[in-house]
Amino acid sequence: MMLTLFRVLGLLPLGVLQGVGAFLGHVVYAVSPSYRRRINENLPAGLPERRRVLRRVIGESGKQMLEVAWVWMRPGADILARVRFEDEAGYAALMAQDRAILMLTPHLGCFEAIAQAHALGPYGRSRPMLALYRIPRKAALLPLVQGARARHGLKLAPADLGGVRLMLRALRDREVVGLLPDQVPSRGEGVWAPFFGRPAFTMTLPGRLARAHDALVLLLVAVRLPRGAGFRVCWEALDAPVTGEPVRDATALNAAMERLILRHPEQYLWSYNRYKVPAGVPAPGEART
After folding, report:
1. Would residue 140 count as lying in a domain?
2. At what angle do helices 50-73 and 112-120 cross, to 10 degrees?
3. What is the pTM of this model?
4. Is 46 a member of any domain?
5. What order of strands is seen across the sheet that includes strand 129-133?
6. Bridge partner residues of 232 (DSSP)
7. How many domains does the chain have?
8. Which residues in the chain show pLDDT less than 50?
9. Strand extents, DSSP E, the chain
10. Which residues contact 101 (CB under 8 A, 6 or more apart)?
């Protein structure tokens, strides 16, 4: 059922999907108190032009909900025509290095487009990508998530111990590994680190992976362009050294993500429960005590 729905949605032009998504975003914001409260709580109080950004966040979050069907279901030629990498020469130079690469893509813009564009591009075969994904709670969604994402040579690793082994092997083979660094990890897999002035439980996996094979760490975001024109992938190398000290590395990673998010704050997924306390994890104040 879900696969059929996504296939139908994927037939629509990107601009139409994003327009419908923006409308639905406003509907959900109006009818769901919990959704509305989370966005308002997560959006930083000191953000410049916060009220204007909030209005745009509502619509952009809705666009993100539906455009994923276009990314997952469209032919590769359509995706390549709508995704452009900023500073392509610099990106090509990094891909040419004989070094493992760790790609970190926060929940900003259309992060699903980055892995697909890489797999379809000129580096898809020479530097194949292995992307970490969380197994959906509903078993009926698993064929959709796996089948739609694992296209064009993109490889997947589940978010479990076996997936970590796959990622370590890929880095050893000088491949590219991609994951979302602002997902809230489970107990034992993260530390508390500041994120927009508030403690957020932050995964330590990126630092461990980078140190294991001296990987180059890149942060990438796929910024949504107006009127369904596609996406522009902005990227930068993590400028802070990976020290192996979990809190220090997590703090540096969050600071780097903040800089990227502040360029396009209206496209970040502020509805995500970024500041939750995972089961079995002491709250920040309790941990200090």
Report:
1. yes
2. 40
3. 0.90
4. no
5. 83-85, 231-237, 216-224, 101-104, 176-179, 129-133, 155-158
6. 84, 223
7. 1
8. 287-289
9. 83-85, 101-104, 129-133, 155-158, 176-179, 190-195, 198-203, 216-224, 231-237
10. 94, 95, 127, 175, 176, 177, 215, 216, 218
